[in-house]
Amino acid sequence: MGEVLKSLFTLLFILMAGPAFASSGGGSAIQDLTGSVLGILALVIFVGAYSLVIMEEQLHLRKSKPVLLAAGVIWVLVALAYKHIDPMLPHEAIKHNLLEYAELLLFLLAAMTYINAMEERNVFQALRSWLVSRGFSLRVIFWLTGILAFLISPIADNLTTALLMGAVVMAVGGSNQKFVVMACVNVVVGANAGGAFSPFGDITTLMVWQKGMVDFSEFFVLFLPSLVNWFIPAFIMNFMISKEKPQAIDEMVSMRFGAKRIMVLFLATIVTAVSFHNFLHLPPAAGMMLGLGYLGVFSYYIKKKEHASIMADSPLNMTGEHCQPGFDLFRKIARAEWDTLLFFYGVILCVGGLGQFGYLAMASQAMYTGLGPFQANVLVGVLSAIVDNIPVMFAVLTMEPHMSHGHWLLVTLTAGVGGSMLSIGSAAGVALMGTARGVYTFGRHLKFTPIIALGYVASIAVHMLINSSHFH
Asked: In this predicted model, what pLDDT tens digit does every residue of 100-159 receive, in sequence order?
C-alpha cells in the first residue's frame, strides 16, 4: 500500500512540477507542449527515473544514475521539440539551469569538504564518545540527541547530524528497539526542523537563499516555528521513554591536532559567504570557495606539523590514489557525497527540461491560482514527505508564483520540516533507515506520523501568528 501511495503522489508531483525558468532569454515565450508526443514522453521518462530513485534501497541503484540519464534524454527531446519553433531557446534555458547547479555544487562542495575534515579530525567522534560515556538515562539521551540534532543541523546539515546522533542512539539503546525507534524519529524531526531556519541547514533553504527569495537574517524568524515542529512530537514521545539507566560505555576519543581551528575556519567561511551575498552582492558560492582556500592553506600547516611528506598537487591526489599520509585537502574533496551532488544535477536538469514543455504554467495555475498560496505551500510540505523536498522546492522556485514574503517563508518552513512525516521524506530519515536497518523502518516511523503531523500543523500556526507582519 505504501508503494502505491508513493507512486500516486509522485505522479501528482510530476503534474505539478515545473521547470526551470519561465523566461529563458531571447525574448521568446515557452510554448505549451504539454500535450505533445515529446512532452508526454519526457514526462514518462522522468516518472520512470524518479520511481527508480524512490526504490533506491530495494534496487541498490544509486539515485544519481537514473536522473542523470533522464536529464540528458529530456533535453534531447526539448531540443527536438523547439527545432522548428526557436532553436536557441533550449540553449539559453539549459545555460540558466547549469548556472543554478554550478552555484549549488560549489557551495555544497566547500561545505562537505569542511564536514569531512572535521570528521577526520575526530570532532564528531569526540562528541559521540562523550555522550555515550556519561551514563545518562534513556530519557536524557532522547532529549540530548534531539536537542543536539536541532542545534547542529543549522550549521552542518541534516544528513550529517542524523548520522552522528543516530550512532549515539544505537550505542546507548543497544537491544532496546522501542527506544532506538523513538529516538531515531526524534533525531530525524529535530535535524529537519533545525535545518529549516538556516540557509546552511538544508538544500531547500540554501536554494531559497541563493535565489534571493529570503535574506540571510530573515531565516531566523522561522526559529520558533521550527522549534515547535520538533518539540511537540518530542514532548509526546517523552512519556513513552523509559527512565532506565543503561551501563555507561567506556569510550573516550580525543580530537586530533587542528580540529578546533578547522571549526573556527568553517564559521569564518560561513561569515565570508554571507558577506559576499549581503555586502558585495556576489554569489555565496564564491565566498564558500574562498573559505575552502582558508582550509587549503591550513591543511598545509597541519601536514607540516604532523611531519607528513608533502607532494605536489596532481590528479592522483584528487582521486585518492597513492595518497600520502597525513591531512590531505584533496582527499576530503574526493570524499564529498558525489552521488548526492550528481543527483541534484539530474533533478535540476530534469525539472528544467520539463518546464520547457509548459508544465510550469500548468503547475502555477493549479496550485497557486487554483488553491491559493497558503493551501499550496502546505501541500508542498506534504509532497516533500513522499517525493523529495529538493525537486519540489526547485519547482516552486522556478514557478516564482506571485505571493507575499510571509508565504515564501512559509514554503521554506513546510518544505524543510514536511519531510519528517515519513522516513523516506528526508535524507536524514533515509540515512538512519540504512544505519539502523531492520530496527528503524518505514512502518515503525509511520506509527508516529500523526504526532509529527501535529507538530507540522502547529509550526504553521505559530508562523502565521508571530510572523503575520510578513503577510501583506
From this structure: 889 888 988 888 898 889 888 988 888 888 887 887 888 999 999 999 999 999 887 787
β-partners of residue 23 are 29
CB 258 within 8 A of CB 218: no
What is the predicted pLDDT for the residue at 422? 87
Which amino acid is residue 163, in one-letter code?
Answer: L
Whole-model pTM?
0.76
146, 187 in Cβ contact below 8 A? yes
How does DSSP classify residue 22?
Answer: S
As a whole number of angstroms, the distance between CA 194 and CA 160 comes to 13
Q: Answer whether 298's CB lies under 8 Å from 265's CB.
A: yes
Per-residue burial over 437-453, b if 16 or more Cβ lie within 10 Å, else e, is eebbebebbeebbebbb
Count the residues in the chain.
472
Distance (Å) of CA 18 to CA 67, 261, 356, 359, 389: 16, 43, 9, 5, 14
Q: For residue 21, which of 348, 393, 399 has the smallest C-alpha distance?
A: 399
Please write the tens of the pLDDT for every residue from 26-54. 334 677 787 889 989 998 999 898 888 87
Q: How far is CA 64 from the centre of its chain?
A: 15
Strand partners, 29: 23
Q: Which residue's C-alpha cell is 611528506? A: 309
CA distance 154 to 55: 29
Q: How far is CA 112 from the centre of its chain?
A: 12
Q: Which DSSP string do the residues of 354-394 spell out, in sequence order?
A: HHTTTHHHHHHIIIIIII-HHHHHHHHHHHHHHS-HHHHHH
Q: Give the torsion sign (CA, 299, 302, 304, 307).
A: negative
Q: What is the pLDDT of residue 319?
A: 47
Q: Note the pLDDT of residue 361.
A: 65
C-alpha angle 139-144-149 in degrees, rounded to nearest 5: 130
Instruction: Please give the grid coordinates belonging to residue 209.
Output: 537563499
User: Cα-Cα-Cα-Cα dihedral of 461, 467, 471, 472, to 10°?
Assistant: 150
Report the number of secondary-structure helices (H) and strands (E) in the chain.
23, 0
Q: Is there a contact between 285 and 109 (Cβ–Cβ < 8 Å)?
A: no
274: which 3 cell numbers? 554571507
